[in-house]
Amino acid sequence: MEKKIRKYKRIINKIYYLLFVENFNGKLKFDFPKDFNRVDLVDYLIKKNDYKEYLEIGCDDDQLFSRVNIKNKIGVDPVSGGNIRKTSDEFFLKNNKKFDIIFIDGLHTYSQVKKDILNSVNCLHRDGIILVHDCLPDNLGKQAIPRYEMHWSGDVWKAIVDLRQNKDLNIFTCELDQGIGIIKKEENTEVLKIEKSINKLKFKDYFKNYKSYLRVISLEEFKKKF
């Protein structure tokens, strides 16, 4: 019965989204590496930079958290996984620790992801790095809110676009594992300028401009920069 209700709700959400939010059929094709994913990326950065302190926001079934090999790690999730059972807002409100590497994969809505990023910046070591999962949706439904597809990234991409306008955050997006945002607490070497406000951006805008909006780089380019 519960599955039927969820399916019915997704159908209603789809009808609502296509009628009142946006209806666009364009689809992107990404060349995500098959032999290198977020686990490999986190491991690469930990080893290269000798990082000691790891934070993960949104752990689900510990697909990543359980495989991170580092001296100290904290995983925050209100439902499952990790080792702290709280929302990210509750965690950051009382947190006084600093981290070298932070992976954000929590609630996939623009407002919450932006909040998680800014809270992460405040507890990041100067030479640390923030990674954000699911930044490159390939079709309208995958990023739609309210959600109506099983495979869903939400509108995480809007948080990256928004913060790329910040002069104190240097941000790229690696074409890897559904798109991984890379954020350093340093001068922005390519400040994004867009005419539309974030709340008025549509998937169609992203479809046409995602490479410049999100400053997309390949895995090879990432390894040269970081």
Order of helices and strands: HHEEHEHEHEEHEH
Structural class: alpha/beta
The value of Rg in angstroms is 17 Å
Give the CATH level 1 class.
Alpha Beta
The rough form would be described as: globular
CATH topology: Rossmann fold
Number of beta-strand segments:
7
User: What distance separates the N and C termini?
Assistant: 49 Å
- Low-pLDDT runs of 5+ residues are none
CATH arch. level architecture: 3-Layer(aba) Sandwich
**What's the CATH H-level superfamily name?**
Vaccinia Virus protein VP39
What's the story with the biggest beta sheet?
A: 7 strands, mixed
- What is the total number of structural domains? 1
Supply the number of helical segments: 7
Tell me roughly what share of residues is in helical segments: 25-40%
Mean pLDDT: 96
